Task: structure prediction
Amino acid sequence: MNDSNKPWLSIITVCYNDAKNLKRTLQNIREQKIKRVQLIVVDGDSSDHTASVIQDFQDVITDWISEKDEGLYFAMNKGIRLAKGDYVVFLNAGDVFHDPQVISYIYNHHENKDILYGDAVFVDQEGRFKSRRHKKIPKELNWLSFRNGMVICHQALIVKKTKTLFYDTQYQVCADLDWAIRITQGAESTRNLGITVCDFQRGGISDQRRNTALLERWRIQQKHFGLKATLWSHLKIPMAFLLWKWEGLKWKVPAVAFQIKIEKASLNKNGT
Result:
C-alpha cells in the first residue's frame, strides 16, 4: 500500500447484539468530511440483525469480523491487530463523533503528536444530550492526570498506532483506564485539540457493573500510583461531582425563580 492510499486514521467499532446503536455510529462516520479512514467493525457473533447493518454500510466499512470472543477488551484487541492507520480511535456502537467536521479537524491539527485528546458529552440511549462530563480535561495530559480517574473519555483519545498498546484483559470493566495510563506513560507528546470530539452514550458496561468498576478502578490506580494517592483520589471524586452538580444548580435556581416570577405576573395580569 503506497502512502497516498494508506489510512491516516483507524476507527475501531466493537458491538454485540446492538444493531440499532451500531447503525447510528456507522451513519455518523459516513457523514464525516474526510476520507483515508479505515473503519473496523468487530462483532461478537450477534444474533440480532447486526449482520444486515454491516452489509448496509459496506461503502464505509473497510474491515469487519463477526465471531465469538471472550469479552469487550478481547474484541478491542482484535481491532488493534487489524489497524493500519497512523492513528487509532475507538468509537463503539452508540457513540458518535460530535459533529461532521471532527475527523477533518483532527487531521488538520494533529501536529504529529503521539496522543490527541478532546472533550466529550453524555447522551442517552436515543442519542439525546444529557450533560457534559463532570471531569474537566487537563490542559496538558500526562499519565499522572489519571490519578483522578478517567479524566479523558476513552472515545476522545486518538493515539498513534506506534504508541497503541493492547488492553489488559484481566480487567473486565476498567481496562480502558489501565490502557490510558500505560499509553500516556509511553507517549513523548500530547495535544489538547480544544474541541468536543464525541458524544458518549451512557449505560455501558461500567454503568451496568458499577461495583466491579469501582473495585477494578481501585486496583488499577493503586498499581500505578500507590495506596496514598489512590485513597486521596477516591475522596476527591465525590467532592468534584458534588461541586459539578452545584455549579449546574447555581444556574438553574435563578432561571426557575425567574420563570415563576413571570408566571405569577401573567396570572395577576389575567386576573385583573
User: Anything to note?
Assistant: The mean pLDDT is 87.
